[in-house]
Design brief:
Helix content: 55-70%
Radius of gyration: 14 Å
Number of helices: 5
Structural class: mainly alpha
Shape: globular
Distance between the termini: 16 Å
Order of helices and strands: HHHHH
């Protein structure tokens, strides 16, 4: 992910109303899967590339958490946010029960944590 891409991800759907993260989420969670989950994953990759010169090549995005932990400072916090985001993304995408408003809020916060972390790493 290039610097321009992370900047674009940080300003997604600025016009979305009542959404403190600026991320668009549809009532059925579709936007959550696509926008929040994918941007969180891309942010983790961007941070790893910038700080470590490499990213996870695995199809299991959870393996990127191990690389995030290598980034000092705050890599452990970003890794935790990624794992939590992926768990909630899986629930929204593959679960039979819709995610709750509380889970939606948590997901937005985890995505924002990853976006902010990647932006900080890219600025260095």
């Amino acid at each position: 992910m290039r610097r321009a891409s992370i900047t674009s991800a940080l300003s997604l759907d600025e016009g979305t109303v009542d959404d403190p993260t600026g991320l668009q989420v549809t009532p059925d969670g579709e936007g959550l899967r696509v926008e929040v989950g994918d941007d969180g994953i891309a942010s983790a990759d961007a941070a790893c590339c910038a700080a470590l010169g490499r990213r996870s090549r695995s199809e299991d995005h959870r393996e990127a958490a191990a690389l995030l932990r290598e980034i000092v400072p705050d890599g452990a916090r970003a890794a935790k946010a990624l794992v939590e985001l992926l768990n909630l993304k899986d629930t929204a995408q593959y679960g039979l029960i819709p995610i709750t408003p509380r889970e939606l809020t948590t997901t937005r916060r985890r995505a924002r944590t990853l976006l902010d972390f990647a932006a900080d790493v890219l600025r260095k």
